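Protocol step 4 of 6.
Sequence for Carbohydrate ABC transporter membrane protein 1, CUT1 family (Micromonospora echinospora) entered exactly as in the expression construct, tag removed. Do not edit the line below.
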Amino acid sequence: MSTDTTTTRSSVPRPAPAGRGPGGRRRRTSVHPTARGIWPFVVPAAAVTALLVLLPIGYTVWLSVTDRQSDGTNAGFLGFDNYAAMFADPAFYNSLKVTLFLFVVCLFVETLLGLALGYVMSLDVPGRRIFQGMMLIPAITASVAVGLLWLLIMDPSLGAANELLAVIGIDPVVWLGDPEIAPWSIALVDIWQWTPFMALIIAAGIRSLPEEPFEAASIDGASGWRTAWNIGLPLLRPVLTVAMLLRTVDLVRFFDTIYIMTQGGPVDATNTLNVYGYNEAFVDQEPSYAATLQIALLVLVVLIAGVFTLVRRRAAK
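Step 5 output, structure tokens:
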């Protein structure tokens, strides 16, 4: 009886030790299927990135350190001569000032108006979706069409803007011909076009906020403004940062609307870095110096985007 029991127990296969297969042989550690299957997606993406991003940047850097002529010939290597000429160029500092002016004014006003309009768009009222669709019409309209539209509106003789001013007894304004007014006119067009975009992002962020903190504040008797300032804005900070980052990249490389409306004038009052670089490349036939200006613009975009990304990461903690 004991012999049969011993035989039965010995015939039961014992589980192999961890990391070993049947017979005590050590298993080969295979690559995880997810890690093994990711390379067919990474390699094409890296190749496309190198082709569409890194290659143009590298070519622009090469242009900036050489003396490329408009006929396609290259007079030789210049080193950092173009960069030295750029930092000694008053037009470069003027274009940088105009770029930063439009960036600060447009981003500040669009964020404030976007907050107010986003709150309205977040309310559950009849016709909200229709209102949202109509508000997005300026943002989805091509910038060239927007520029042509506002060029007609701001016409000093026949434009609707001066007609409205005349109704309320204000003298006509030379919207795009006065160096003091032209930058503000360009800012007005951008604010009109892109505030609904900011409002849509902010409205989606408001609707996604948790309700418990607001209910607790209401029970404690906090006013609406105090609740919005102390609870709503801190919770909405990550969404605001993302929306401002998206607008930052567009504002720093502002080009199409400006070129349609003023081409950088009058007297370089709206001549941003992007417009200045375009004029240097295709009007003054200085491709190497234009490439240097675009490298400066790239550095500016990276710096500002880096600041906003750092703020967003801190806000997410």
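Step 6, annotate. Residues 1-11 have pLDDT under 50 and may be disordered.
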